[in-house]
Structure formats: structure tokens, C-alpha cells
Amino acid sequence: MSVTAMATATSPAVGSIRSRRSTSGVTRFKMAVRSSSISLAVAPLLTKLQQDCATPLPVLRNVADSMSADIRAGLAVDGGSDLKMILSYVDSLPTGDEKGLFYALDLGGTNFRVLRVQLGGKDERVIATESEQVSIPQDLMSATSEDLFDFIASALANFAKKGGNFHLPPGRRSEIGFTFSFPVKQTSIDSGILIKWTKGFSVSGTAGKDVVGCLNEAMDRKGIDMRVSALVNDTVATLAGARYWDDDVMVAVILGTGTNACYVERMDAIPKLQGDFPPSGRTIVNLEWGAYRKGLPLTVFDRDMDAASINPGEQIFEKTISGMYLGEIARRALLYMAEEGSLFGKSVPEKLSMPFVLRTPDLSAMQQDTTDDLQTVGSVLYDVAGVESALNSRKIVLEVCDTIVKRAGRLAGAGIVGILQKIEEDTKGAIFGKRTVVAMDGGLYERYSQYRRYLQESVTELLGPETSQNIVIEHSKDGSGIGAALLAATNSKYGRNC
Ligand code: ADP
Ligand code: MG
């Protein structure tokens, strides 16, 4: 490509960097020449990335519409679409009337969390709550099922012993809501078969078994008088926790290391659901939306990352929008720009070739930089990739981060609109024209302000200013812990108001 062609391909942002530089004095001249050649070579690469990641309204609309269609097809029959549309068996939602002492146990990564809550009904609500985080020793992540569940049961027992201000009526067993964020084939509200361990776990003897049974047996072995009365995933627990405070909550979305969504569906709108419906007539359905794939604007970096992953061809939406991957997509783009566009000068920083060396929190830290010379960007690049960077390179790095996070946030927003559209199509007025809440949780959503902004922007663009005013997208802080305890209460063996 000729120099002229490259120059015309320059994006406005890069163009402005260059014009500012042209006023530099003599001492800065050398640097200016070097930087200028950097941006000349990199500019078309950045422009190409921005074009490939672009999410104009028609792209968003197509994603929202395809998400709706996939939801419908997945509800019709198992295997009907990329979305599994898993029935949660949660068909009575918290009302606020729940009373008593309940526990929650959250196992979904290298830590597990135990929580206890004393519920006081409509007037008193949450009287007291207490939680503890326990890290799982590395060796237990590849031990036997008995070892792992014995460890969890013991930690739960230690925690339970310490509850001074918490009261359980005599003769009653403590009940637990178990949030288990691994792939499970749910068989009832309090049972589910582990399909496979993920996230670094390779515990032997659990796959194919009921995980509630495994925990209950471990509690029996340890002589602990507690029982699991609800098994849920984190998205479902988040919806339940948010719904406790607000009846308008209809959808919950997790944006953390991975991503998922669930919503409240009418049972008669689920053709694959057989048998009699409970009185509520509604249930929570878990989309497993990370597996969605239609109409996504993908780049060569996404394709390469997918090919190198442990699950090629799977979880494409998750790989485009969730925290585990955004840093890695940016790293691949930056490495390419360093190699093909001399982004960081003549040499290519060696560390930048290491997969996953740049993490999503690094992107977020760089994007919060407000200094004139982009000091934070400079130090993150230095610390993470051993890169000494000029200001112009830092500006381009920021453009790359913004391009990746903008696409992610906007696509997540389109996914949310897809869910809302599906509910509205079935029941006119169920969503639009009244207040509807989407409960959000997860470290990515919580800690990346630009991501939140792009997500909201996309929802507003898709729905228009008037309709979107009634759609409240809000962070449900720690909703999932309390949510699981609340589901233990709504599914209590002793009735929900004891
Ligand atoms: P998990 O999804 O593993 O249950 P969290 O909901 O706490 O856990 O999310 C953790 C994820 O959130 C991290 O893997 C990371 O991708 C993302 N994250 C954490 N901190 C930040 C941050 N400061 N900025 C952007 N993303 C972050
Ligand atoms: Mg989590």
C-alpha cells in the first residue's frame, strides 16, 4: 500500500494526534518524525479494526432480533437453537414475606462463599447477614469428589458454628441455597447432574452425579445437620435476589469472567415444558447466552483466539463480550500492530506475545487515565508487556481498548433488548410502556464504566428514548448470595413463612 493510500485511511482520531504534533518544537522533532511514521503505518490497521468491530444500529438490531428468534426456538424443543434455554425449576419467586434463617453457598471458581441471612418478612426484611469467603486449595481442585465436598461441608460447619445473632427454631434443620456455576442438567429445584467441571477443576467422580447429593452426603459424613433445598446458577440467584426488593425485575445478566442471562417466562410459552403447571404459571429460564453466535461482527483476532482456545467454535458471544477475553482480543490486535505497523517502534515487545498477559482490568485501568501524557497507560504497558511507549502509541492503545469494549458493551445491550422483545412479542404491554428492571452483576459490569455506558447506549439506540426510559438497567450488588438464600426460603421443606 502506498503512503498516500495509508494517509487517506487515517482515522480522525489519529489524524488529530498528528496535526497536534506538527506544532512541536525542534527538540521534539526527532520524536515527532518517529511518531509520525508510527501513526502512518498503524493508522490503516486501526481503521480496519474499527471497521471490523463496528456495531451500527442495523448490526445491533439484527443481533437483538436473532437473539429473540433463538430464545423462541430453544424454548420450543431441546437443541432447537444455540441457546439451551434451561428450565431452572424456580417457579415461585421471593415475595418479601420470607422469614427465618437461611444459608447460601456459592461455588463457581477458585473461591467459595458462604452466607447466612436472617429474614424478617415484609416489615423487617433482611434483619442480619454475614458471609465468609474460603479459598479452595489447589490440590482439592483435582482431588476426588468426596475430598472436595468434605472440605466444603467442613467450612460450612465452621461458619455455621459462629452464628451468635442468628436463630433457627428448635427441631429444624438449616436450609441452604446452593449456587453452583458449572454446567448442570437440573432435574428438580434441589437436584442436578454435573455435566462436566470447568474453570480449572478436574475433580474425579462428580460428573454424571447429583451435586446436591454429593454435598448432602458430605454433610452426613461430617455429622452436619443441614440440607440443600435449592440448587441454582448465579444468574438465577441474581434475579431472585433483585426481585426480592423490586417486583419489576424481569431479567438478570451476569457480566464477569464469563456471561449469562435469565428471565421470567410464562410456562405456557415454553412448548418443551410438559406436564402440569404450578399456580404461579411462571418460571425462570436460563438462556446460557454465552453460546449465542449469529450476526456478530468478528475480527481475525477473535477467530485466532477462538481457534487457540480449549473450546474452539463454542461460546462465541461469551468470547466477544465477557471479561475473560476482552484483554486477550486487545493483546492480539496490539501485537499485530506492533509487528505490522511498528506501533512500539522497531522492535516487538516480547512479552506481548504471551497469551492472556493483558487482562480486562488492565484495559479498564488504562481507560480511566486522565493525565495529559497518559501515565497510567504507559505504566500498564510497561508493567504488563515491558513496553516503553511514546504518547502517540499510548493514544492508539487506548483507541484499541475502546474499540473492543465498545463492541462488547453494545452487543451485550443488543442481547438484553432481544430478551425484552421476546417477552413483549408474546404479551403486548408486558415490557414496553411500563417500568421493567434488568438486574446486572459481575466484575466486568461493576468495574468497567465505559462498558456500562456502551451497554446503556445500545439499549437506548435500539428502543428509542421514550421506551428505554422505562427500562432500568441496574447493578444488583451481591444479589446472588442473598438470592440463593431466598430461594432456599421459597422452597423450604417447612413452608416459606416459618
Ligand atoms: P466471576 O465471573 O469469576 O464469578 P466476578 O463477577 O467477580 O467473578 O468477575 C470477575 C471478572 O471481572 C474478571 O475475570 C475480569 O474479567 C472482570 N474484572 C474484574 N475487575 C475488573 C476491572 N477493574 N475492570 C474491568 N473488568 C474487571
Ligand atoms: Mg460470579
Summarize this structure as a short list of keywords or feature phrases.
498 residues; alpha/beta; six-stranded mixed beta sheet; five-stranded mixed beta sheet; 17 helices; 13 strands; 46% helix; globular; disordered N terminus; binds adenosine-5'-diphosphate; binds magnesium ion; EC 2.7.1.-
If you had to describe this structure to a student in words, what would you say it looks like?
Belongs to the hexokinase family. It is an enzyme of class 2 (transferase). GO terms for molecular function: ATP binding; D-glucose binding; fructokinase activity; glucokinase activity. Helix 2 runs antiparallel to helix 14 (391-426). This protein is of the alpha/beta class. The model is unreliable at 1-34 (pLDDT under 50). Helix content is 46%, strand content 17%. The radius of gyration is 25 Å and the shape is globular. Strands 1-11-10-9-12-13 form a 6-stranded mixed sheet, with helices on both faces. It has a 5-stranded mixed sheet with strand order 4-3-2-5-8. The structure holds adenosine-5'-diphosphate (ADP) and magnesium ion (MG). Magnesium ion (MG) binds next to loops.
Secondary structure layout:
Blueprint: H1 3-8, H2 12-21, H3 29-52, H4 57-76, E1 86-87, E2 99-107, E3 111-120, H5 121-124, E4 126-135, H6 145-161, E5 174-180, E6 184-188, E7 191-194, H7 211-221, E8 226-232, H8 234-245, E9 249-255, E10 259-266, E11 282-286, H9 300-307, H10 316-321, H11 323-341, H12 360-367, H13 375-385, H14 391-426, E12 436-441, H15 443-447, H16 449-469, E13 471-475, H17 479-490
Parallel strand pairs: 2-5, 5-8, 9-12, 12-13
Antiparallel strand pairs: 1-11, 2-3, 3-4, 6-7, 9-10, 10-11
Helix pairs in contact: 2-14, 3-11, 3-14, 4-14, 6-7, 8-17, 11-12, 11-14, 12-13, 14-16
The chain binds adenosine-5'-diphosphate and magnesium ion (MG).
Magnesium ion binds at residues 108, 234, 256.
